[in-house]
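Consider the tokenized backbone below.
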């Protein structure tokens, strides 16, 4: 694995799992053919976690569950989220990031090309969440 990237295929028996269970599993993969609004999976480089899709009122509980299951641990007091492919994030999801950071006595760093999350973080006074606007 050190010299060649590992790849795998996950398969689910839809006769055994309902759509909700499949969505709970599929959202934790970088690529999926399941109908999920967001994905949370391992990141590259110093971004421990990657986020893609949309985090909105319809899935904020699913996001909280995925974050709890994945439970990314901080490095040097930070949990870095690559959100380059995250199209939307609402305040509830930012609160989940704050709560995760608090549990680990860390700061959640959200790297995104959008300035909107930074404005929300400032308005909500979320000191445990830092937004880095990247291009």
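A designed sequence for it:
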């Amino acid at each position: 694995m050190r010299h060649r990237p590992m790849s795998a295929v996950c398969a689910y028996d839809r006769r055994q799992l309902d759509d909700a269970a499949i969505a709970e599993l599929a959202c934790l993969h970088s690529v999926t053919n399941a109908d999920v609004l967001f994905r949370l999976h391992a990141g590259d480089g110093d971004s421990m976690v990657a986020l893609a899709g949309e985090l909105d009122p319809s899935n904020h509980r699913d996001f909280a569950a995925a974050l709890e299951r994945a439970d990314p641990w901080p490095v040097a007091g930070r949990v870095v989220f690559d959100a380059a492919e995250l199209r939307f994030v609402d305040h509830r999801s930012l609160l989940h990031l704050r709560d995760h950071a608090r549990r680990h006595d860390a700061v959640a760093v959200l790297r995104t090309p959008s300035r909107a999350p930074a404005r929300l973080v400032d308005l909500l006074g979320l000191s445990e969440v830092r937004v880095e606007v990247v291009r």
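Strands lie at 38-42, 49-55, 78-89, 107-112, 129-133.
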